[in-house]
Automatic annotation (TrEMBL):
CC per GO annotation: cell outer membrane
Residue span(s) of domain RagB/SusD: 260-546
Annotated SusD-like N-terminal domain residues: 129-212
This protein's name: Starch-binding associating with outer membrane
Pfam families: SusD-like_3, SusD_RagB
Amino acid sequence: MKPICFIIIIFACFTSSCYKQLNEDMRSGIPDNYLNTPEGFNAGVNSAYSYLRAWYGNQMGAQLTVYGTDTYMCGSGELALDAYNFNLTPGRGFISSPWNDLNLAVNACNAVITRAPLVPIAEGTRNARVGEVRFLRAMYYFLLVQTWGPVNLSLTETTEVTTVAHRTPIDSVYKAIIADLQFAIANLGATTTEYGRITKPAAENLLAKVYLTRAGTTARQPGDYQQAATLAKNVISNYKYQLLNNFSDVFAQGSGEKNPEVIFAVQYSKNVLTNGVGNQTHLFFIMSYTSLPGMARDLANGRPYSYFRPTRFTTDTLFDKAHDSRYERSFVTVYYCNNPGAYTINGKRVTLQLGDTAAYFPGREYTAAERNAVNYTVIAPSQYNQTNFPTLTKFLDPQRPDINNEAGSRDFIVSRLAETYLVAAEALMMSGQAAEAVPYVNAVRKRAAKPGATAEETAANQAAMEITASDLNIDFILDERERELLGEHHRWFDLVRTGKLLERVRLHNPTGAPNIKPFHVLRPIPQDQIDKTAGGISAFPQNDGY
């Protein structure tokens, strides 16, 4: 049992009733003053946390951040978000569902914050819980403003049906986000005895990312980059977090999830009563390995939905495979037979035994002679397609109860120290301090160096991974972020933040390249929101281009 159980209980319907939507009032029989009691207040805080699962560990958040970028494109997922085509419209569920969930999350936070002064608990406890919830409200608004631009800014509880809404300029939204995080920093402790609760360094870490992001918008303020650098450096230097020695260990399941690199994670559980639909990210990055000779679905290799497939830029160019361990530690390169039998492979009849190599991804082209010399399937880069591609291993969940179960139990890492190093580096570089940024990049890269057969070989690989100030520019930072953070729900935001979305999609994503246009740096406002707002499109305008 995890210390905090994030369950969307009936109370969530009460706190989130009809936020800016003409929906039926669903408060049921819960009395209005329940939230004013210690029990109700605690339930309200947990409800505010629970909405994190609507984005992290869910298809909706993954779709809006992973593909349609330079590093991932569509496998069998929603093509419109990758192709930027005529189906990317305001009426689609993959646009309206996350919009609604995030706005409901905001109102759940507003309810807790509004009622907190009425709750008879110790002031220190009250302020800490409000600090947690203001962090959450900041996070939800940060996702909203990055995805849709100007959004309705509401900082008080909505308890009745309303049709009044307007799009608040992004500078005001960012000011509200920053104020919430500053309150959280002032009222949260550096550590927590209840694993999963938000801490002061988690708030500092998010605020660093907020300043870094705002600096790339029309709402930018002098000093944003320096503020981001200062906060990120403080998280690195003054708390208990540390980079693990082995990149793979960051994604260890079970007890390994609570490692000193993780700053904040969304919790999931093996308890079916608290896990809901579970963390489903394990489904999205897996190739259709069950079509390979000698392979059948199993727990170790996962249930293959094949939504996201890496671009050739990711598989062929992004990684220095001679010195950097992260490609081999991020992708499946070999499938071992779990379905023994006789098969025709490379035009010849072969028998595969349990544990034999069934398929190999060499990362280069194979000659006919090389293929004929082996008794397994070889999938070279030129053969990658919508179903055959290297599988990202970060999110695999072999601890599910059976091969068909979709409800994963591993936590979703939202923020970890390696990204904090890269935030510090980017902020320093963008504020003209490239030389100071270099050690932060090198710390991440040296950790990723391939271990050698000897200490000398390991040292040589580490030396090869180090960079100098002359190597550092925004493209290098973007590449390094994906070498480290590939698939972790950052990329679309990273490309928009740095003004590189169009350039990089056109260079590296053949699906999106023909159609992407400047207006695609924002998603369409859901048509349902516009239709149900008094005044319609004049009161709640659509984003340009949609």
